[in-house]
Amino acid sequence: MSALLELKNVKKHFPLKSEKILTREKPVLKAVDGISLAVHPGETLGLVGESGCGKSTAGRLALKLLEPTDGEIWFKGNNITSYSGEQLRKLRKEMQIIFQDPYASLNPRKTIEQTLMEPMKIFGTPKNIRKQKVDYLLDVVGLSSYHKRRYPHEFSGGQRQRIGIARALALEPELVICDEPVSALDVSIQAQVINLMEDLQAEFNLTYVFIAHDLSVVHHISDRVAVMYLGKIVELGEANELYSNPKHPYTQALLSAVPETNPHHEKERIILNGDLPSPANPPVGCKFHTRCPFAEEICRLQEPELKPVSENGQMAACHFAKEVIVEKQLS
Amino acid sequence: MESVKPLLEVKNLHTHFFTKSGIVRAVDGVNFDVKPGETLGIVGESGSGKSITAMSILGLVPSPPGKIVDGEILFKGENLIGKTEKQMRQIRGKEISMVFQDPMTSLNPVFSVEKQMIETIVTHEKVTKKQARERATELLNLVGIPDPHKRLKNYPHEFSGGMRQRVMIAMALSCNPSLLIADEPTTALDVTIQAQILELFKKMQKELDMAIIMITHDLGVVSEVCDRVMVMYAGKPAEFTETKKLFDNGKHPYTLGLMNSIPKISPNKEKLKPITGLPPDLSALPTGCSFAPRCKHAMESCLSIDPSLQKVDDNHLVRCLLYEETKKAVTT
């Protein structure tokens, strides 16, 4: 199966202001520091990690909303890394994004109809078809056609997110990057939107990259999951496999930190010491070694590569991925 | 259960906001008590009235437009409603203290942590500045901030989110309060940091023997730290019971709906069963049960009768006609 989207060793370094005036070295923030990923048609790839791990930057790089510092981005078999202007604009039709904040991502001065028609107008859909399509889109996301004359402030958070989804679908894209689409919503509304996204994926054969920090939501919606830490993918695998048998110590700690909703189920918790190191000054060697309970000499010196750790294609970037597991089972 | 005298009793609390577009009934008849040393959870979604309940206890409801129109708040037997601002100031920060959701906006950015902590201590206790500084250092050490002597001199922006929340907790603990109100204390934090902070709450409670009211929207947090829990919906308690009972044998359709809305991490993924519809507008509540328009089990009578909180079991209260009916059926 050929990939719809492929990132090959993609990096994004943001320049920082130098604190020293008389130095040639330009400090950089390595938001994404060499990630490789393939997203297959029709699947949902989850991207999880804590704030500052580079998951949103990765999503934006995939859409070329940000210019990568290094690496290649392939979409449908074409290298789109150097695309710009007209070429890129044509591509936008096939790749769309849903943002986290439904309050900030809709233009407050435009009616819902205008907002939904905008992308179709850009791509030259005739006016009568546009109007029909607006009604259809509103229906698809569970709103009514009378809503189209209203303005964003007249809607609740959940409804706004539905409008954001309708806008992303207006051009019938193949790939939708969902950047924390439900994290601003209340639990009961969150479940409604997740179900809607699943239904739409089945109906329109969409491919999702689902970026979120909520581990249970990501598990629920994703076929495969990539875990990020300080700009790197530390583990990648099939969702159930990765959650039931995490190989990287960071994934293990992350999963153990999720509050258990069953008070009878006492889970063994790995409490990580300290905070996430600053991505402007990441540790050398394995980036996780400063917080890792199993860190040894080699972790401080050499950065581990993402390599297969089981037959079913699960990958982890840890010098001791297999041994850590053995030790855990013994204890 | 009756034997322990409650530390805090909230009786029939009504806090309303008088706005241009009508009266918003943010808290509309809330009753609960907190016993010394226990953790009570208040769960609900945005607009359920959980934060306004907390602010009412501390006398922090902005007035106007807000007003406590009815009810009593008894803290150690004394009614806090009607106390003057001066009297409240002696209770706030000393007897009852609060930790807010966002540590960045609740710390003063232009003063060092040292200055802010000493201010709190000196205001409430008869100590010298030097003693207060020692106490502040001790507290930072207690909440797990490494190098407390040095860190005391830092400004809020020099701390990370998790560390700032630790500073907030240290400040809240500075006068040994008997009640700590924590309003979504971990919502702005990442999960690994959330786990650290929840551990810290548990440890502090054990060491200092204080009661905690934990306000949250996250049922996971409730199950981790709370002894008892009150579920709120549209300004009223929907269910009130022990945490274990709520998770094993939750009764109110809203509670059950919330639980079904959370994805479980288990190999067999099932489709989520969300609650349909939207929370009601608090300035135009439906007659009858405010949850009825979204309720799967709503009956004709739910649209006209507003149910009262009924005892369905020991320490288990539910506000739902379903259980009033069954109860009647059993007794008659």
From TrEMBL, chain A:
Which UniProt keyword terms apply here? ATP-binding, Nucleotide-binding, Transport
Q: Does the keyword Transport apply?
A: yes
Q: Does the keyword Mitochondrion apply?
A: no
Which segments constitute the ABC transporter domain? 16-255
Pfam families assigned to the protein according to its UniProt record, in alphabetical order: ABC_tran (PF00005), oligo_HPY (PF08352)
Task: Write down the Gene3D superfamilies for this protein, in alphabetical order.
Answer: P-loop containing nucleotide triphosphate hydrolases (3.40.50.300)
**Taxonomy, superkingdom:** Bacteria
A GO molecular-function annotation: ATP binding
Similarity comment? Belongs to the ABC transporter superfamily.
> What name is this protein filed under?
Dipeptide ABC transporter ATP-binding protein
Q: What is the lineage of its organism?
A: Bacteria, Bacillati, Bacillota, Bacilli, Bacillales
UniProtKB/TrEMBL annotation, chain B:
InterPro entries according to UniProt: AAA+_ATPase, ABC_Ni/Peptide_Import, ABC_transporter-like_ATP-bd, ABC_transporter-like_CS, Oligopep_ABC_C, P-loop_NTPase
Q: Which Pfam families match?
A: ABC_tran (PF00005), oligo_HPY (PF08352)
Q: How does it sit in the membrane?
A: Peripheral membrane protein
Record-level Gene Ontology MF annotations: ATP binding
Q: Where in the cell is it found?
A: Cell membrane
Q: Which UniProt keywords are present, listed alphabetically?
A: ATP-binding, Cell membrane, Membrane, Nucleotide-binding, Transport
Question: Taxonomically, which superkingdom?
Answer: Bacteria
- Keyword Membrane attached: yes
| Matching Gene3D superfamilies | P-loop containing nucleotide triphosphate hydrolases
Q: Where is the ABC transporter domain?
A: 8-259
Q: Which family does it belong to?
A: Belongs to the ABC transporter superfamily.
NCBIfam families named in the record: oligo_HPY
Q: What is this protein called?
A: ABC transporter ATP-binding protein
Q: What is the lineage of its organism?
A: Bacteria, Bacillati, Bacillota, Bacilli, Bacillales
